[in-house]
Amino acid sequence: MNEEQFDFIEIHQLRPGMFIELELGWMSHPFPTGSFKIGSEKQLAVIRSLGLKRVRHFPAKSDPLPGMQNADGAQVTAGAGPGEQVVSDPVFDAVDESLRRKQRSELLSEQQRHLIICERRFVDAIQHYKLAVEQVSAFPGAAAQQCLGVVNGFVGDMLEEGELAIRLLSEGTGDKASMHPVNVTVLSLLLGRSLGLPQPDMIDLGMAAFLHDIGKTRLPDRVRWPEENFSSAEYSLYQDHVAQGIALGQSMALSASALQTIAQHHESMDGSGFPARLKGDHLSPLGKILSLVNQYDNLCNPSRPSAAITPHEALALIFAQLKNKFDSVTLSAFIRMMGVYPPGSVVQLVDERFALVVSVNSTRPLKPQVMVFEPRVPRHEALILDLEYSRELGIRRSLKPASLPRDAMDYLSPRQRICYFFENAMDSPSSEVDS
């Protein structure tokens, strides 16, 4: 039988294993492509919800249905006669189109609602950090409470049952000095969670991550971020932010563990860090986490945006060239959590389409959620595609944003500043189906 020969089959006759084609535009259904083999009952439920009466069915590409044979003993599948035409029902078609638009609108609204919640919480954390910086000299106790409120909220949410998704936020959420501590706190706590840290250690890690750079507020502006052309005196002054941070942390009555972690956020396993040039297990478990996450975020979000590399490139660089600086167990856990293509990575899918990774499930990160460049779909209507629910669709390679065609670059808008937050993975809406 010709593989392209088809018949029409009514929706109620569909079964897993049948290869079908949906006569719908890409934006009118949640599947990666319009032609595919049905893989599960959940997919069937999604197909039925589309409101179609019949679909094209390709017997030669379908799995044979057990117990169905023709007179010659050959397997056959259920369906209408070859080439049978679908009778159009204008009333049904109008209702069908209205239903699809309503479903799409609801999904878009839900995706936007979740993004807004994450961005509001990120901005709220930034505001608490800025207030703590303003208060720390005159009211260190009040500053500590500002920070503790943020950290307790994060830890409480992260230690609840369920899987977490790491979410890419919109650009312009904050400046480098204020978004960096929030980014580092979110990722450090997620990594601590994946390593099984108990709640008290999570609180200490969160406070240290949130305040690790507060000592920079006591430095001149010109040396707050390291530059290659620093003189020896300038670099020494920059390094002093660690000691200044410890002093401020002591005035805030931080725990000994949190102070130790702040002290170690620039130390390295190979002894090349500062200020104490600690080596190996002289770094605490929390210090190993914070030093790694701090390095990762500084690679993605350097002081000069032109020097930024993509999250995928940052992980690759750390693993290929810097892994001796970090604890192997901690680094492996971080890579497993972020995935090969962390949120913010620009990729090309196996079907050649360009996409931006916008979210990963921190426990199953190899099939992230992506926003796909689809010229026929307005950017503001772009749905998030969950690759976990597609066996046939995956990521072929990572790309530098500059290599994208102009229209794809404008559509996907790769971030110059990478901001992360987290949410319950089960609550995160996407155009997803099982396969």
CATH topology of the largest domain: Hypothetical protein af1432
End-to-end span in angstroms? Answer: 26 Å
The number of domains: 2
Low-confidence stretches: 67-95
> H/E element string?
EEEHEHHEHHHHHHHHEEEEEHE
Beta-strand residue percentage: 5-15%
Count of separate DSSP helical elements: 12
- Indicate the CATH class of the largest domain: Mainly Alpha
Structure explained in plain terms:
- By secondary structure, this protein is of the alpha+beta class.
- It folds into two domains: about 5-85, no CATH class; about 105-425, Hypothetical protein af1432, CATH 1.10.3210.10.
- The chain has helices spanning about 40-50, 90-135, 140-160, 175-195, 200-210, 230-240, 240-250, 255-265, 285-300, 310-320, 330-340, 405-410; strands at about 5-10, 20, 35, 55, 165-170, 345-350, 355-360, 365-370, 385, 395-400, 420-425.
- The strands form two sheets. Strands 5, 6, 7, 8, 9, 10 and 11 form a seven-stranded antiparallel sheet that branches. Strands 1-4-2-3 form a four-stranded antiparallel sheet, with no helix packed on it.
- Helix 3 (about 140-160) crosses helix 4 (about 175-195).
- It is elongated.
